[in-house]
Design brief:
homodimer, alpha/beta, Aspartate Aminotransferase, domain 1, Aspartate Aminotransferase, domain 2, 4-stranded antiparallel beta sheet, globular
């Protein structure tokens, strides 16, 4: 990416004027006087999502009641939503389904993968991986016993190649998150998957912080399994259902343990014995969350006719502008970027360490710039190309610089950590 | 219950006029020209549910975005909804939480219970239990291995006491559904739990077909664990989040395997090691489904100031009237009731076997009487005291008699089984 010579307001406005994604902003409801840099935590609301919720309650559930399972195709939603997400993941049809939470889906996949690797007991991940991923491994290990399942963690960094060295024939499963939730570092799916396969290791990618933010090529990279989140860059609403990817080549030999009735080959035969459904449907468990899944289904239409390369370009450009403007402000010298700067190594967020990161974040929020704090000292800023403008970036950095230079963030009300998410 | 001497329209209207729950009907949206006898499958929509969905999308998510986790107490919803459900189950505070699906919650509880019973490997249930319950046991067994976990099924009936005889010291866990989804038979929680405890067996009750339909006394019956559904008699909407009950006395020694970040003692410390939250919060897994859970939260307000004994009385009276009217119609003699008639042995539904049950159900639906078919030959009718009137019962039976006497149900369009739920 070329360094922009002069990021004046005029330049930023010009970037907006030539932005091929600019019109997508209208698809979202965005509150007044708010610059939202936290779409990596909870995506903003597509207007169509509210319309769809209204329909599902006031036209479907209320009027057509139980008949809606057929007449409004509720029963098809897990597949329909899965197939809408699939192109964002580089997945051919029949491999993605929408259901449950990321954590629950990860448990299904982890269990499957371990059963496919008799004689291997180790699940390898990064020490800094999102905790729920590590906790789900620990939960599986508590159930199976440590002799059958152990979590192995490495402190990987862009410099030490610790991860690659740890991928050996001793490992059963490699569980990684493509974009690190703290640092925003982006891992190379293609390279790490290939390395894993060379050692007979199955891979599970958590795409929570990347799906909808950048192009992903699961099929082309021969990924085995993936999970991800519906409420971040996919804008499906708070606690939206999650998704799960399993490569077709594995479908016939999978045994996932959360064998609820919706994953049965013939759920409405009410047979006593479980017989798994063919294909990706085997990953369904309980009755699908229709209201929530409908909202996600509608939200995904904002990705219609979108080129993910354009999304990626704008994401990198927005964050590049942000950091460039930060470096131009002497008062922001204490903000230490922990996100790798090169485009191939970062996702769609920037993370800065600062001794007063919590207070800074609170002061920003008070001024309408919604950023995020991650313990112990990280100010996290997410860049969502579908609804952020270049001029917003300029305004956000100006406000940040103002808060720092005025020492506004030292106000006592910003000192206590009360934020829970 | 006294047999009503003469169930004329006038008598039924009089019963409505003196019904203490009559005013609750206004709390629901009910479509015109529809008699809804399927609230045991999907509850009707409380009007307040639609209002709440509108609020959560158009005032909370859209406007306050990520801040809503605190400002709208999203983070408290699993507990708040759990505590609203608790009184309907006879559960003191701190023992019920709302999360995930019934199936997923059952897996958590089954795993916990098995770990509490070293040396015992058998999970006892009824052959006719709702399939997802049996499938989840089979899923756990597939993961643990048959030597550690086996499902044992008995063909219990009100006459043979097979269940009680099968509860021995060989059994680890007794898994039963209080009201049978097909027959509507009601099991005696108190007696079976006591019998189980005498043999050192832990009990799990599935309350899917009873919670919100009849008074339940989990604490008084010393039940160990329970799960249940949010979208039947609790009217939480299609695929609403489910609930889970765990008696306080067990909390400290439980290890449930779906250890997601929300069940961590300090989720926002983002620690590498899982440390379970105290109390019922240890059963949380992923990020709560806020939109769906908010709808359920609102729907539960229809139970405010309701006496569950009155609900039970009306439920029995509605079904009693229905069956009495059926027996008065000679043309309905082929409908064979498989639900026990005595009040202590039935829930809030009636089930009739009929060789043309599917066609009858379709013809009823065509005429606006929404009933339910369960393979192979069961016509199922649910009685929801909060929004059904006595006069509705009269109308429904009249329509049913008309369909049978006219042989309308033999029309070709009712012959093919297309209904999926």
């Amino acid at each position: 990416m070329t360094m922009l010579p002069d990021l004046t307001k005029t330049t930023l406005a010009l970037l907006d004027a030539t932005d091929p994604l600019a019109s997508k902003r209208d698809a979202f409801f965005l509150p007044d006087n708010t610059l939202y840099l936290d779409g990596n935590s909870l995506g903003a609301m597509p207007r169509v999502a509210a319309l769809r919720a209204h329909q599902v309650l006031n036209e479907q559930w209320s009027r057509d009641l139980i008949k809606s399972w057929n007449s409004h195709q509720w029963i098809d939603l897990p597949h329909k939503v899965g197939e809408k997400i699939a192109p964002l993941l580089g997945a051919a049809p029949g491999q993605v389904i929408c259901c449950d939470s990321t954590s629950v889906n990860l448990f299904k996949i982890l269990s499957c993968a371990m059963l496919m690797q008799p004689g291997r007991t180790k699940i390898l991940s990064q020490a800094g991986n999102f905790p729920t991923d590590l906790y789900m491994v620990q939960g599986l290990a508590s159930l199976l016993g440590e002799q059958y399942c152990q979590l192995v963690l490495v402190d990987d960094s862009p410099d030490n190649h610790a991860l690659e060295q740890a991928i050996t024939t001793e490992i059963a499963v490699l569980l990684l998150t493509q974009v690190d939730f703290r640092s925003g570092r982006l891992l190379d799916i293609q390279r790490l998957t290939q390395r894993a396969h060379e050692q007979g290791v199955l891979v599970i990618w958590d795409l929570a912080h990347s799906a909808g933010a950048l192009p992903i090529e699961l099929d082309a990279c021969h990924v085995d399994f993936a999970v991800g989140c519906g409420y971040k860059y996919l804008n499906g609403g708070p606690g939206a259902p999650a998704f799960l990817y399993a490569a077709t080549r594995h479908h016939d030999r999978l045994t996932q343990p959360l064998t609820g009735w919706m994953g049965h080959n013939a759920p409405f035969s009410f047979a006593t014995d479980y017989q798994k459904a063919p294909g990706i449907a085997q990953f369904l468990t309980g009755t699908p969350a229709i209201i929530a899944m409908s909202v996600l289904d509608a939200a995904l239409t904002v990705f219609d006719n979108i080129d993910m390369q354009q999304v990626r370009y704008k994401s990198l450009a927005l964050s590049h502008c942000f950091h460039h403007l930060v470096t131009m402000q002497p008062c922001l010298a204490d903000l230490q970027l922990i996100t790798p700067l090169q485009p191939s190594a970062r996702g769609s967020q920037l993370a800065y360490q600062h001794p007063h990161a919590y207070a800074l974040c609170q002061a920003l929020i008070q001024r309408g710039v919604i950023a995020d704090f991650r313990a112990p000292n990280i100010l996290r800023l997410g860049f969502t190309p579908l609804y952020l403008r270049y001029v917003d970036i300029g305004t956000a950095v100006t406000i940040l610089a103002n808060i720092v230079s005025s020492q506004e963030y030292l106000k006592p009300e910003y000192a206590v950590q009360q934020k829970v998410t």
